[in-house]
Amino acid sequence: MDVHVVDHPLAALRLTTMRAAETDSGTFRASLHELTTLLVYEAMRGIAAEKYPISTPVAETTGTRLANPPLLVPVLRAGLGMADAAHAILPEASMGFVGLARDEKTHEPRAYMESLPDDLTGRHVVVLDPMLATGGSLVACCEMIASRGCTDIDVICVLAAPEGVERLRASGLVPRMTTASIDEGLNEEAFIVPGLGDAGDRQFGAYRRF
Ligand SMILES: O=P(O)(O)OC[C@H]1O[C@H](OP(=O)(O)OP(=O)(O)O)[C@H](O)[C@@H]1O
Ligand SMILES: O=c1cc[nH]c(=O)[nH]1
Ligand SMILES: [Mg+2]
User: Fold this and answer.
1) Which of 1, 33, 71, 137 could serve as a FRET partner for 159 with CA atoms 20 to 30 Å apart?
2) Is-contact 161 192, C-beta < 8 A?
């Protein structure tokens, strides 16, 4: 798995705002939106593009278009905050949805939504989730995608723990991941340290779902 850590001052600024405990929910969402644009821009540097003939008002020339527009898959809830920004910079993309919530005690993901095309053979899928902690959620999501025939998966997250990166790598399902930071590790509640807290709660509010 190719791991790309985006090292850019503008990404670091947004990440700083998201990390700070005093940042309010609206500002957190705005920073996540802006950071997602930067992460997707970097992650898509190698996306397959093809040339085709176009006309400007002045002359014939060559244009560029995506050879295989991707399927975006935000992981609910927290990945929802990345969906609009990713779709804005990749307007040709379509979108599927996966819903996962981590059990507070076992930290195992529980799936409550799997809204994906039946056949993903030959498709390029871009998975969006701000947090890669133990890796259980993203591996579960990528297993859903791979079971539909997809072998070309990009994972884009804001923060990753080394434990999660290794688990995703060991799954053998993901050729590439992009993140703004690989943090120190996990605490006893499997939260990323220093991290930013619960990315879903900080966007949408804290409440018990199961
Ligand atoms: O790598 P893991 O240990 O699996 O943890 C990461 C997962 O935890 C968060 O979701 P959460 O379960 O809190 O659901 P939410 O987005 O609805 O808050 C996050 O958005 C990831 O999906
Ligand atoms: O630090 C963490 C770990 C899992 N999920 C989050 O939202 N934050
Ligand atoms: Mg959460």
Assistant:
1) 71
2) yes
- Answer yes or no: are the C-beta atoms of 155 and 161 closer than 8 Å: no
Domain range 2-204, its CATH number among 3.40.50.720, 3.30.160.60, 3.40.190.10, 3.40.50.2020: 3.40.50.2020
**Sequence-distant (≥ 6) Cβ neighbours of residue 43 within 8 angstroms:** 4, 126, 154, 156, 176, 178
Q: Is the CB of 100 under 6 A from ligand 1?
A: yes
Residue 198 annotated among the catalytic residues of the structure: yes
- Give the tens place of pLDDT for each residue, 17-29: 999 999 999 999 9
Which one of the ligands is nearest to 77 CA? 1
List the chain domain ranges: 2-204
Give residue 186's identity as a one-letter amino acid code: L
Rounded distance, CA 158 to CA 181, Å? 7
Judge whether 95 and 123 are in contact, CB under 8 Å.
no
Query: Which H helix or E strand runs over 143?
Result: helix 136-146
Q: List pLDDT tens digits, range 64-79.
A: 999 999 999 999 999 9
Return the beta strands (E) in the chain as ranges: 2-5, 49-55, 60-66, 71-76, 94-95, 97-102, 109-115, 124-128, 131-132, 152-156, 159-160, 176-179, 181-182, 185-186, 192-193
Query: Which residue has a Cα nearest atom 8 of ligand 2?
Result: 198
Instruction: Confirm or reject: Cβ of 101 under 6 Å from ligand 1.
Output: yes
ipTM, two decimals, is 0.98
Please tell me the residue having the least CA distance from ligand 1 atom 14: 101
